[in-house]
Design goal:
Length: 332
């Protein structure tokens, strides 16, 4: 059995960056990798490494589960579940902590960023989250994990821990490989194209497009995106980060490469390009919103999550029995 696995934290509101960099790519991979089973989960345990309002978190969990399905994933080839409903994630996460070194955790980018920003009350869960993340992946012997260019470090520590466990206790886990997207892996902020689009949840944030916000607002944000003084449409990430970011969005949605986009807008200015892109994005997100509204309060959503939990539990329990035996836990 070959498994492609990925999880998304239900923090903030999912953005166009999440959709183009992850969700749309999952659909593409699922269509191409017909011999693979796709495990997608809502990483709700990871969400509480920072303070979260319980009601808001519960809403975000439900919305994200529905967005997974609304993105176009084939539910008949999908195991969709909530991380917190499969307790083996936490069990294996603790065992992974027992073989993880402090120095490895201190080097992790997310933890270092929080410390550098001097965020008050950095939790121990945020410090040890890579061990739980490794458990999320290793628990199902995932062969591939789709990641963006900036997420490779996360998978590397998972590979390190999987190899360490196998070397210490005998072959137990498949070591996962990364599936890195070349286009659309990183969508940048529309007002500051030097930083990644972030799902802060602020509806007034003009640099971020949220998947569930009104389409007229989405169009306005595209049209007001920061570019540069030059008006010719061409890709140059270093000299023209703003227009290059917009071209990436255009490319991922339409399937046109950068050369084809440049040729299409030869002799035209940014106004024509951004006007067209606004309609393209609104049409894409409009379709997602229609599917989302059809499923968010349906019985089907709960049924799919129930089936996903049951499928995940079978594999997770089988793996944990093997792990416990290998490490010497349980009744003699």
């Amino acid at each position: 059995m070959n498994i492609v696995l990925s999880g998304i934290k239900p923090t903030g509101v999912p953005t166009l960056g999440n959709y183009l960099g992850a969700l749309k790519n999952f659909v593409k991979l699922q269509n191409e990798m017909t011999d693979y089973e796709f495990f997608m989960f809502v990483a709700d345990m990871h969400a509480i490494t920072i303070p979260e309002d319980p009601k808001t978190l519960r809403t975000n969990i439900k919305n994200l589960a529905a967005i997974y399905l609304a993105s176009g994933l084939d539910k008949d080839r999908l195991t969709l579940f909530l991380q917190s409903e499969v307790h083996e994630h936490l069990e294996l996460g603790y065992i992974m902590q027992s073989i993880t070194y402090m120095g490895e955790l201190e080097r992790m980018t997310q933890y270092k960023d929080k410390v550098a920003k001097q965020v008050t009350g950095v939790t121990s869960a945020l410090f040890t989250y890579p061990a739980l993340m490794a458990a999320d992946i290793l628990l199902y012997d995932a062969k591939y994990v789709p990641v963006g260019e900036d997420q490779k470090q996360h998978l590397e520590i998972t590979r390190d821990l999987g190899n360490r466990f196998n070397n210490r206790f005998g072959n137990t886990f498949q070591i996962p490989e990364a599936l890195v997207t070349k286009v659309g892996a990183k969508i940048m902020d529309l007002q500051d194209p030097t930083k990644k689009m972030s799902k802060s949840g602020d509806p007034l944030d003009k640099g971020c497009i949220y998947l569930l916000e009104p389409l007229n607002i989405i169009k306005k944000k595209i049209k007001s995106a920061v570019t540069d003084s030059e008006t010719r449409v061409y890709y140059d990430k270093e000299k023209k980060p703003g227009i290059s970011n917009l071209m990436t969005i255009y490319s991922v949605i339409t399937g046109l490469n950068y050369d084809e986009i440049e040729k299409k807008y030869e002799g035209k200015g940014y106004g024509d390009f951004k006007g067209d892109l606004a309609e393209i994005v609104a049409t894409e997100i409009g379709g997602l919103q229609e599917r989302f509204n059809a499923i968010i309060n349906s019985k089907e959503l709960d049924e799919i999550l129930d089936q996903g939990r049951e499928r995940a539990e079978i594999l997770a329990r089988k793996k944990m029995l093997k792990v416990y035996h290998k490490v010497g836990l349980g009744r003699f």
